[in-house]
Specification:
With 130 residues, the protein is of the alpha+beta class. The protein has helices spanning 12-17, 57-63, 66-82, 123-126, and strands spanning 25-28, 32-36, 44-50, 90-93, 109-113. The radius of gyration is 14 Å and the shape is globular. The structure holds adenosine monophosphate.
Length: 130
């Protein structure tokens, strides 16, 4: 285990998965949830999170069963497709740890779309006009 942060059952995404706090859900199955980011950086900004106790991508890819990993990443594509992003394009991002400024320590992938984002990933170039 390379991530020193322990999984916190009370993180905001765990509460969303348990239905304890509301969200704008766009997709849910036995393995994942996908919901709109509360502070969007693009016209489409959806978070996809596994229904499992994984702190980050680093944790998930090391410890989740292979079929779970496949289902998770296929769900990302499914959500992108239902949002009509596959032709225009989209960006997927997952922040792991402090240098990436991960703020919610339940693994999730950001799907960003419906704007031209430029070629760099960073606060100045990620945001596009909403
Ligand atoms: P990260 O910095 O990669 O950990 O991303 C966490 C994301 O979660 C940020 O983009 C937040 O805007 C988003 N977020 C935090 N709380 C909520 C919430 N209750 N519902 C939806 N998105 C949230």
């Amino acid at each position: 285990m390379t991530n020193t942060i322990q999984y916190d059952e009370n993180n905001v995404f765990a509460k969303i998965i348990r239905g304890e706090i509301p969200c704008s859900m766009v997709y849910e199955d036995d393995y994942v949830v996908a919901f709109h980011d509360i502070n969007p950086s693009a016209p489409v900004h959806i978070l996809v999170a596994p229904k499992g106790r994984y702190v980050s991508f680093d944790d998930f890819i090391q410890h989740a069963p292979g079929d779970f990993v496949i289902r998770f990443f296929k769900a990302i594509r499914h959500v992108a497709n239902t949002q009509n992003l596959c032709e225009s394009g989209y960006r997927i991002i997952s922040n792991h740890g402090k240098d990436a400024f991960q703020t919610v320590h339940h693994f999730h992938v950001h799907i960003l779309g419906k704007c031209a984002m430029g070629s760099h990933v960073g606060e100045k170039t990620l945001r596009c006009s909403l």
